[in-house]
């Protein structure tokens, strides 16, 4: 009976081990699950944060590129043109020949004029000219220099600024000198006036008593 009891007792103990192992494994699984969930949750939280940080970095690089290469270049170009007076050479614009300018003498071909070294498309302004379109059309395809020598009231900052707003290019320095050499100054032999006069304009001379 003793031997049988030992055999029975041994079989009974072996049959109880698997349930115990299952219980232990189940307990370990329960203990590990929250940790794994925490890691998963942390990973899910980090991914949007990483994506956001990447987007911010890319945007910052784009803004930096624009400021460095685009904005500053535009500012430098603008400041360079702001220092150019009406009729002076503008290096940021195309240079035309007098022959090319001469082809633009009607609304169909656009109306161009020159002043100094500047080339101007005045097509849209012709009908708005205070003296009438016929007057300004006398300079179409040519230079306004001789007309502005006679009608010197055009030589004001306001009119120069208006003309410069219609700037499209340049003529060469040689062509500009050629235009000047053809000018006749009708006021070249004007007599000297008394110094007591308040001079409002030299060509034509306009003054009033002080």
Automatic annotation (TrEMBL):
Family: Belongs to the cytochrome b5 family.
InterPro entries xrefs: Cyt_B5-like_heme/steroid-bd (IPR001199), Cyt_B5-like_heme/steroid_sf (IPR036400), Cyt_B5_heme-BS (IPR018506)
Transmembrane segments: 49-69
SUPFAM superfamilies documented for this protein: Cytochrome b5-like heme/steroid binding domain
Gene Ontology CC terms, in alphabetical order: mitochondrion
A family per Pfam: Cyt-b5
A GO MF label: molybdopterin cofactor binding
Name listed for the protein in its UniProt record: Sulfite oxidase, mitochondrial-like
Keyword Acetylation attached: no
Record's keyword annotation contains Iron: yes
BP GO terms, sorted: sulfur compound metabolic process
Chain's gene name: LOC112465491
Cytochrome b5 heme-binding domain boundaries: 93-172
Keywords for the protein's UniProt record, in alphabetical order: Heme, Iron, Membrane, Metal-binding, Transmembrane, Transmembrane helix
SMART domains associated with the record: Cyt-b5 (SM01117)
């Amino acid at each position: 009976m003793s031997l049988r009891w030992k055999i029975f007792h041994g079989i009974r103990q072996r049959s109880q081990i698997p349930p115990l192992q299952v219980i232990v494994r189940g307990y370990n699984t329960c203990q590990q699950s929250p940790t794994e969930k925490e890691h998963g949750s942390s990973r899910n939280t980090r991914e949007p944060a990483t994506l956001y940080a990447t987007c911010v970095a890319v945007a910052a690089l784009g803004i930096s590129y624009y400021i460095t290469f685009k904005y500053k270049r535009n500012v430098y170009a603008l400041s360079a043109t702001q220092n150019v007076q009406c009729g002076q050479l503008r290096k940021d614009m195309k240079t035309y020949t007098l022959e090319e300018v001469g082809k633009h003498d009607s609304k169909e071909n656009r109306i161009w004029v020159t002043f100094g070294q500047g080339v101007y498309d005045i097509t849209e302004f012709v009908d708005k000219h205070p003296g009438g379109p016929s007057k300004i059309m006398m300079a179409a395809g040519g230079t306004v220099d001789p007309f502005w020598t006679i009608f010197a009231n055009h030589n004001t900052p306001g009119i120069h600024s208006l003309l410069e707003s219609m700037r499209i290019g340049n003529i060469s320095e040689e062509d500009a000198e050629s235009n000047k050499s053809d000018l006749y100054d009708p006021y070249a032999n004007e007599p000297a006036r008394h110094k007591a006069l308040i001079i409002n304009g030299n060509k034509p001379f306009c003054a009033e008593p002080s």
